[in-house]
Amino acid sequence: MNDIWARNKVKVTGEGERTIVFAHGFGCDQSMWQFITPAFEQEYRLVLFDYVGSGNSDLSAYSSERYGNFSGYVQDLLDVIGLLQLSDIIFIGHSVSSMIGMLASIERPELFAKMVMIGPSPRYLNDGEDYFGGFEKSDIAELLEMMEMNFSGWASFMAPLAMNNPHLPELTLDLQRSFISADPVITREFAEVTFLSDHRGSLAEAAVPTLILQCSDDSIVPIEVGEYLHKHLKNSELRLMQAKGHYPHISHPEETIALIQGYL
To answer: What residue stretches are annotated with the AB hydrolase-1 domain (predicted)?
Structure first.
């Protein structure tokens, strides 16, 4: 059990009876929640962690076999929940973590009371006339090639695109630093797992009440994706945010906090 604490850099704060588990997105770590967590510390117990391969996790625990698909990340989340003997949690996941959390809730529904998905996508690739995910296969191939050939170049290209708040250059720089500090090989593998995934077939199995927070003008997840998710996820509410970009918990923490608090 102790190895999970260290492996996933688990951190517990706050004073409440109910527990919120925060799960970070691709290329990030638990520090990305720093502008959000203070608003919840007095009423809730907060659990933060890093997926293996991200942040200050134990990189030696990473293997392509375990983390070559979503199941390894789902297991990381379930391991952290099991370590702390939690049930009935409120899960808040950003980006790829939204689907990781959803898959975990399908596997162990009794552990989850409510979910908040920030910038979620069940599939990033377009699929003919039927589905608009925002990316063509060639876009993802180019992205993965760029990560392989010039990792820091990829980070400096991706950060401003994803943050999409040019009037807040310091946030873009922080995100760029987060990208660059990650292990290039692991990050590229995580990118491939993320951007080539398709979880549309699992949406019908998810039953936990869910708030979908969809940013306006998100270069990673277009508005059509939020609408698709809301349509196919039962017990879901969709809120279109004024926030632009893919990281509203960083660029627009007040709006993000207000929407989450209102839902809870």
So the answer is: 20-258
Q: Residue 249 sits in which domain range?
A: 2-122+199-263
Q: Is 95 a catalytic residue?
A: yes
Task: Considering the candidates 57, 95, 105, 236, report the single residue annotated as catalytic.
Answer: 95
Q: Could you confirm whether 218 is annotated as catalytic?
A: yes
Environment class of 56 (CB within 10 Å of its CB; exposed 0-12, middle 13-18, buried 19+): middle
**DSSP summary character for residue 201:** G
Active-site position among 50, 218, 249, 252: 218
How far apart, in Å, are the Cα atoms of 63 and each of 15, 104, 255?
36, 20, 38
**144 within some domain:** no
Prediction pTM value: 0.96
> Annotated catalytic residue: which of 24, 94, 199, 246?
246
Residue 177 placed within a domain: no
Rounded Cα–Cα distance for residues 258 and 264 (Å): 10
Q: What is the pLDDT of residues 125-173, one digit of tens each?
A: 999 999 999 999 999 999 999 999 999 999 999 999 899 999 989 999 9
Residue 11: which CATH number? 3.40.50.1820
- Cβ 97 vs Cβ 25: under 8 Å: yes
How many domains does the chain divide into? Answer: 1
Inside any domain, residue 191: no
